[in-house]
Design brief:
The structure is a single chain. 34% of the residues lie in helices and 20% in strands. It has helices at residues 18-27, 50-57, 73-82, 98-107, 154-167, 181-190, 199-202, 207-214, and strands spanning 5-8, 32-38, 63-69, 87-91, 111-116, 134-138, 172-176, 194-197. An eight-stranded parallel β-sheet has the order 1-8-7-6-5-4-3-2. The protein is globular.
Length: 216
């Protein structure tokens, strides 16, 4: 059985000591660092920009998974690529030429993904699956960490898994929102390849055990 990719979200880290927390993630077996970028427009929160990502890049060799929860990803993705990002994930719900954006990001030499909010159906994103490296299923409304897992999103994961397997697409399924040992197992059983978890890891007395619990 393949190992699930664990991508802790630094949205729940200590922002006054991100270097320490990212190095901690590397030391306890995280695979990726999930970086939530919010603009206060597409979602009701503001987080960090490419400058912070560039600074963090110097502190770790972990793969950077940047989730752009912003209204105009076509204007800003290149800044994050230059900052050292390995994967750019934008939202299906943005008003931009998505296929052009996917091509531009892939042509730059990094991976690209598309994310769907809870109210967005998999049918709305199905036409992009042949072109992206990853599809991110949000199991909470994006914007804030620490929310509860929406179990009615599980059929989306199963539906995407079925399409990807049947069409033989080279596309991972990532899940983000309310992920802990119990909900993580639900997502893996439904077909998820990667789990994003924030508060569950960073609030744990033993973050290493918290990470381990996500893929056992």
């Amino acid at each position: 059985m393949k190992k699930t990719i664990i991508a802790p979200s630094i949205l729940s880290a200590n922002f006054s000591n991100l270097e320490r927390d990212v190095k901690m993630l590397e030391s306890i077996g995280a695979d990726w660092v999930h970086i939530d970028v919010m603009d206060g427009h597409f979602v009701p929160n503001i987080t960090i920009g490419a400058g912070v990502v560039k600074a963090l890049r110097k502190t770790t060799k972990l793969f950077f998974d940047v989730h752009l929860m912003i209204a105009n990803p076509e204007k800003y993705w290149l800044d994050f690529k230059k900052a050292g990002t390995g994967l750019i994930v934008f939202h299906q719900e943005v008003l931009t030429d998505k296929k052009k954006l996917i091509k531009d990001i892939k042509d730059s030499g990094i991976k690209v993904g598309v994310s769907i909010k809870p109210k967005t159906s998999i049918e709305e994103v199905e036409n992009l699956l042949p072109y992206v490296d990853l599809v991110l299923v949000m199991t909470v409304e994006p914007g804030f960490g620490g929310q509860f897992f929406m179990e009615d999103m599980v059929p989306k994961i199963k539906g995407l898994r079925k399409i990807i397997n049947e069409k033989k697409y080279n596309c991972l399924i990532e899940v983000d929102g309310g992920i802990n040992a119990q909900t993580g197992k639900i997502c893996i059983d439904a077909g998820a390849d990667a789990l994003v978890s924030g508060s569950y890891i960073f609030s744990a007395k033993n973050p290493a055990e918290a990470i381990k619990s996500l893929f056992i």
